[in-house]
Amino acid sequence: MKRRDFVGLTSAGMVLTLAGFPVFAQQDQSGLVGTPKQRQEYTLNLLRKLCTEIGPRPSGSKSFAKGAKIIKQEMKRSLPYVGYDTYDFEKWELIRDPEFLIGGQRIEAVPAYGEEGTSIVGMKGFIQKSNSGFIIVDELSGKPAASITISPYGKAITHYQGRTSGNTIPSFSIGKQDKPLLESAVKNRTQAWVKFPTRFIPGAKGCNIVGKLPGKRKDEILFLAHADTVYNSPGANDNTASVILMMMLAHSAATSNYNHTLTFVATDNEEFGYFGANHYAEKCIADDTMQNIRFVINLDSLTYGNNLWISSKQEQIKDILKKIHKDLNIDSAPIFDSSDGFVMDSEPFRPSGAQALHANSRGYDEKTLPVYHRPDDTADTVPLDSVENSFLVFDEFLRRIDKI
What we know:
By secondary structure, the chain is α+β, with helices and mostly antiparallel strands. The chain is built from nine helices and 19 strands.
């Protein structure tokens, strides 16, 4: 990845000087997300623009660029310093739609994201059980030629595999409803055929969207939410709704004065190896600002239910969130685990020594989990009450940790 300069595009306003950081006079955005009705309208409007009108936004695509432009415009409504953090990467894409047949019966198959596919003519073989599930054994050589995973939620979903993952054969997923067909094919030695050719394109452009709200000191609170989707899904729950929530937090924060500098990053390439977050972290190290980060908050799929699922080893963070739920009478049962908050997009920021949390959610599992990484992860599947609850919690969380 090649390092690119961060391009700051500032809104018009009177320039002030604060702790050596350029600050611009803000407009009052209280009319933007100040009430539940305004937040609902704001969420629905951006879900329509990003998910319904654009659709899937995989990294390096024209559709991602369209979405990034909208996100940047929204950040600029409240934040004085907004721009792109760009880099080069090797893009992966399917050459044509995947095909998978067992004994002539067509089965939905979704290739893993980021690995070598089959040849252009596909391959034939027989299905066998393996330690990880099922494999297709080439009918001529007798060697494993493809691996098959079973979706734990419902229909077939993609997952990140990557050429550096150690997997040596193509991998694809089927829905759990089709597992009996595989078991029958193993028993009856039914012939299978699969085809999903892929290609890698060097020199693709990755792009994080970064907004800053300078505080009274350089100590920083960093919010992350990935803006890319898998190649076959509009990603309303994973992770567009969380990006919208993050922007609402930015609009709300812009109406107050904070001690910490607040940074909001809509990351790219989370679904394809976390390249975006890694690149921005590299920039923080190169700019000698990594040590300024005091909190890292990664928002990922906050609309799978009203119960926030918080991963963090910081008891202080957990205690604050528990108290917020009680104080605001939030009708949910937050889940806390002891895993490290430096996971996925927040992992590259471990050198900061900051307190970290990764926020996910659960509660509407039967409705939301089956659309995970699916074409039907559409705007109408997003539970708006989950957006509102998460906003109330993290808006207050930001105010409280700012006092630390």
